[in-house]
Amino acid sequence: MNKLLGPLLVGLSLAASLPTTASSRALPVAFSDGVELIANIPDEITATGARLVGDYFYVTSGDGLSIYDVSEPTEPTLTGTLELFHDPYYVQEDLDTNGRIAVIGIGTSQTVSDTLLVIDVSDKSAPEIVGKLARSIDHTLTCVLRCRYVYADEGDVIDLRVPSAPRVVGSWNEDLMTQGTHDVTEVGPGLVVTSSNPMYLLDARRDPANPKVLAQAELPGELGDSIYAHGNQWPRRAKDSILLLGGEKVGPCSKSANAALYTYDVSRWRSAGIATEVDSFHLDNGSPTDGNAAYNTNCAHWFDDHPDFRDGGLVTMAWYEHGTRILEVDSQGQITEKGFFLPLDGSAWASYWIADDIVYTVDYNRGIDVLRVMDT
């Protein structure tokens, strides 16, 4: 901590009040009205990704897998851990699980994980590895059809119907012209949207090893460069009229198509293609007293739509040194900022709605920040 700053709690409104927060770490933070820091869990240093299933929150970090009981969202309780020995830098970002098995890619390289692990998480106090697949699995793994299959971002389709014996059975991107695929998302049962350019809507319901292309969309980008599709969500299990797409970029956040959250109109995807871009939201560097980071190593990362998102609503998004941003999407897809939480020592990698007014942010430097978002 910068000792010249000391513990800094800044409520960035016209009022000069300083909200009271509870935290296990007296670290400098800035936050807007309507966002409150409830607690910090510092154990999960190098925390990178998580998944909420029912009352349990599954977290990956450089130490391995941790499982928290979040039936009381403001008081998460650690129930079990599993140590995984791998390069702390390369950790599974987009952890996926159905609450019975989880899939994690591990490795010793910053660019490639070399083993897929199938982990039995049915006993929340004692997760254990039950299956392995030794091959190159790049970056993200996504459960499809209740984790009976896994889609790897580079194209492999892995059969997990026998968790102890995972096997590659196909390729979801065979014969597809994909560029820069970072992730795929099962937006509905057997319906998958690829974070790639072009972006594809795939139907895996009949033949998961060889999914059918239902629609696609080119991502031309803005501000002189093309969009790097980092992650996507289609709220309400692909029934919403708005699709969300997030980017990622190394370096300054402004002046790049990659460093943004996008909204797409998908109300007519059957006749007009998967998506038409509506709006984008960018951040600029500046002063923490104005709610901006003074510098960035990276910008824009994982996000999550509110449980009540319906043709618009709230989105929480992790933005590295820009912390957690609470955004509001209106019924036309226009994006405005509603609030933020900005720890001056943070590197926010992912953010999740745990309840209507509770957000967990997984931070590579800080662990897990438990936030309350008021007036939701």
Helix content: under 10%
Count up the helices.
2
> CATH homologous superfamily, by name?
YVTN repeat-like/Quinoprotein amine dehydrogenase
Percent of residues in β-strands: over 45%
Inertia-based shape: globular
Q: What's the CATH class label? A: Mainly Beta
> What is the residue-mean pLDDT, rounded to a whole number?
87
Q: How many domains is the backbone divided into?
A: 1
CATH topology: Methylamine Dehydrogenase, Chain H
Radius of gyration: 20 Å
What spatial order of strands do you see in the largest sheet? 1-2-29-28-27-26
Low-confidence stretches: 1-24
Largest sheet: 6 strands, mixed
What this model shows, in words?
By secondary structure, the chain is mainly beta. The chain has one domain (9-373): Methylamine Dehydrogenase, Chain H (7 Propeller). Helices cover 2% and strands 47% of the residues. It is built from two helices and 32 strands. The chain has helices at 235-238, 269-272, and strands spanning 9-11, 29-31, 35-41, 49-53, 56-61, 64-69, 77-83, 96-97, 101-106, 113-120, 128-137, 141-144, 149-152, 156-159, 167-171, 179-188, 191-197, 199-203, 212-217, 231-233, 242-246, 249-250, 261-265, 276-281, 298-299, 303-305, 313-318, 324-329, 335-343, 348-355, 358-363, 367-373. A six-stranded mixed β-sheet has the order 1-2-29-28-27-26, with no helix packed on it. The model is unreliable at 1-24 (pLDDT under 50).
